[in-house]
Amino acid sequence: MEISPDQWIIYEWHGLRLNATIVFTWFVMAILVLGSWSITARLSEGETVSRWQVLLEVIVSGIRDQIADIGAGDPLRYLPFIGTLFLFIATSNILTVLPWYEPPTGSLSTTAALAICVLIAVPLFSITKRGLLAYLRSYAEPTFMMLPFNIIGELSRTLALAVRLYGNIMSGSIIVGILISIAPFFFPIIMQLLGLLTGLVQAYIFAVLAMVYIASASKTHRHGSKEAEAAGPSDEIQNPGE
Amino acid sequence: MQLDWLTIAAQIANFLVLIWLLQRFLYTPITRAMAKREARIEERLADARKHRQEAEQEARTLRERQQELDARAEKVLADARREAEALKDRLEQDVRKEFDEKRSNWQEQLEEEKAELVRQLRKRMADQVVKVVRRTLSDFADTDLAAQVANEFARRLEALDAENKTRLSDAAARPGSTAVVESGIDLPSAARSRITRAIHDNLGADIEPDYRTDEDVVLGIRLTLGEEIVEWSAGSYLDKLDDLVRDTLDAAGRSDLTATT
Questions:
Q1: Does residue A50 sit at the B interface (CB-CB below 8 Å)?
Q2: Residues of chain A below pLDDT 70
Q3: How many helices (H) and strands (E) does chain B have?
């Protein structure tokens, strides 16, 4: 039994292996891009709007409002990054309803890649907003003594981000696989449904946490500490899902 | 479980490409469309607000104009009413004045007619009385009326007291004064000489009276000496009759008047 789709090699050419993770990622990307393109190519700016456009507007404005609620200034600045995180993870998790499909988020490589993106995006957003010095100074707050702990916190939360998503999705697939061998027909379906729910919740948690990290790093110290407090409960939200 | 760094790198690249693609095909068009729609809605709302304000402004203007018109109409009506009242008063006064004038004219005319009638009646009565008296006197006393009148005047002249006689003779003696005897009927020479004699006896021998006829005296004699006048006339008897006739005519005129009004 394969734990990670990384080990599922679909094509190999001169030592370069094209594994299932990348192929299914492309599949998800294709669905997202083609779906958006087919709808946005016929956008209406008048009163009569197609239902697909309404769907997209609801999703986009929902993400935008969520970002605005977390409060780091102009939500449109973070929308591409956070929105893409959410849409990618959510789509790749929902597509598990397809029988031949393996979610790319069930691979630690994918979740690590996303976590690394967040790790890089947090200082990038912070520096473009506050400047390099202010960002670096935030590591030495409230005192210089906290510098190592801040750095460790930065890294550990990235690790937690990656492992949390990977563990949830991977476990979902594995549980279904085990249940099929123990109790076929009925139980796996329920677990599959629960897996869909978990997948959506994880997508939401991943995106919101990324935004919270960005917001807390992008704010001044005073607001940042408040934001860190606000991030605390958010961290705990994930526990029921795990 | 192991990390495949090549896959991680590929996934990072995939993710960045996905961000770019979605930015190009999803976020930008959708947010632009939403922003445009919102702008359009906002524009329409602003337009509606503007129209509403305009409409309210117009309604206010119309209301003010309406009130103005109402006030003006009220004023015009009040003026017209006042003018009509004034005209009515004036017309009423005119009519009343005209009516008063007419009534007074009519009354004057009536008075004149009455006076004329009385005068004629009196004259005719006097004539009749004189005629009757004359015939009666001539029938029963065998004397004519003129002689009787002259005798009566002479007797009354004699009967005057001394004071009156002195006054009359003084008046006659004044220079430039004339003596005139007027009578209602033409006096014959016997009667005239009887009167002249009585004047000479009582008032002064040098008085030469001038005889004239005046119908107003009726049955009697009037002696004018300068400014003094002595008169005896049967006209005083007629005066009572005259008063009676006048009263009767007045009563008749009043009842006529009340009947006409």
A1: no
A2: 1-3, 220-242
A3: 6, 4
